[in-house]
Design a protein that fits this description.
The structure is a homodimer.
Chain A lengths: L2 H19 L6 H8 L3 H7 L3 H27 L6 H14 L7 H9 L4 H23 L6 H22 L4 H16 L26
Helix pairs in contact in A: 1-2, 1-4, 4-5, 4-7, 5-8, 5-9, 6-7, 7-8, 8-9
Chain A binds a DNA duplex (30 and 30 nucleotides) through helix 3.
DNA sequence: TACCGCCGAGAACGATCGTTCTCTAGACTA
DNA sequence: TAGTCTAGAGAACGATCGTTCTCGGCGGTA
């Protein structure tokens, strides 16, 4: 077996087991058994468990965002659809049998207090998602794309949490509905959203000013 | 030392240490040292660590919701203010030096896959918060209080996650702004929201229908 | 005073885990 | 064929942890 193939098999096993059961609940010996890679090779590829954990998170971040971007690129009928199609993808994810919430939120809750690398990886992931959503939102005629993207990210993380804990994928639909309202409210003009199809709000509103 | 006092001191220590560092990262011996309760007494109060974990979560749930409800009851100038004042409380929480996200999300990420009790406690907490928000929203003239409360819960959990990971308490302000938009959009009439003060949206919109 | 029961301190036990080491078998080379 | 290198299987090591046990001391009682 190649060194590169061993790495891949280890990361595959780690990706499955760490996500399913939590990082600390999976021993190196289980990873050896699940991957078919010997313990010696395992430590040649990853000198310590935290190295494997770090690469697991980095790979998951890249794949998660790539899948999301692919889905949005394929499913959005117009660029204006983009932000809301994100929630459709979330819905399909929530429906997957192995769905168990956000791997980064989980890892952060488990090891964020004791591992800088985990905290960094989680923060990086959330920031990257925010940037992706900001890009999606930028094609819309909105006053403050960064603000709207920040609001949508709240719905994304909130729905992931809700779906993970209650087991109900419908959190994605609720988030989508709320997201559509926020998008409409952030729009600068009514006419510009007329091309957005049935998702566009018929009457955008200005954002209320907080009083507290 | 009383049996009841030992219990209290143990739950105090557990509440602090479990939240700060994660459950698995805190040993029974550390709890003994932090609480000043002997190991023998510790096991008389809590026969196993998971019993202490369960009571830790139950107590935290009760206290967290009580603090939130107290704050809302004291700070909301009108009943219509209630839902948005929730986000003000979140902001003060996010600013606390020991803030490290939602204890239930953290515990779920760490042990949800291997502990039914943790999953139950986390689910119960999130459901109770949803019910509380539903009660707050019910005083507003909205078409579907349950739906609106469900949307606001997404913002609550999303902002907790964002604040925990990025360390920026401003996530609460962004969530509040978004919440105000959702509240306004859910309103049945414009006149009814006129009494809500500066938080009320000047022009409520109807919710767009999802297309996907 | 002698006895009894409870308590705290901490050693001890058994299990698990991350990591390293040993041993053996096979592949490659001169 | 003899020698050398490598890899895999799995034992071993050292540390930690949850839990239990032992021991010595202290308070209450006849």
């Amino acid at each position: 077996m190649n060194h590169e193939e061993a790495r891949t098999r280890l990361l595959d096993a780690a990706g499955r087991l760490f996500y399913e059961r939590g990082i600390q609940a999976v021993s190196m010996d289980e990873l050896r058994a699940a991957s078919g890679v010997s313990l010696k090779r395992l430590y040649q590829c990853f000198p310590a468990k935290h190295d494997l954990v770090e690469d697991y998170l980095l790979r998951r971040d890249a794949r998660w965002r790539a899948e999301l971007a692919d889905y949005v690129a394929r499913q959005a009928r117009t660029p204006e659809d983009g932000p809301l199609v994100v929630f459709d993808w979330l819905h399909t994810w929530f429906t997957a049998p192995d769905f168990r919430g956000c791997a980064f939120i989980n890892a952060f809750g488990e090891l964020g207090a004791v591992s800088d690398a985990v905290t960094r990886a989680a923060r990086h992931h959330k920031l990257a998602v925010l940037e992706y959503l900001t890009d999606l939102v930028r094609v819309l005629p909105v006053r403050d794309p960064a603000e709207l993207a920040g609001q949508l990210v709240l719905l994304v993380d909130g729905s992931i949490t809700a779906a993970a804990m209650t087991g109900a994928p419908s959190a994605a639909l609720r988030a989508r509905t709320a997201g559509a309202i926020l998008v409409a409210a952030a729009a600068t003009t009514t006419a510009a959203t007329a091309t957005a199809g049935p998702d566009a709000s018929p009457a955008p509103v200005s954002a209320p000013t907080p009083s507290g």
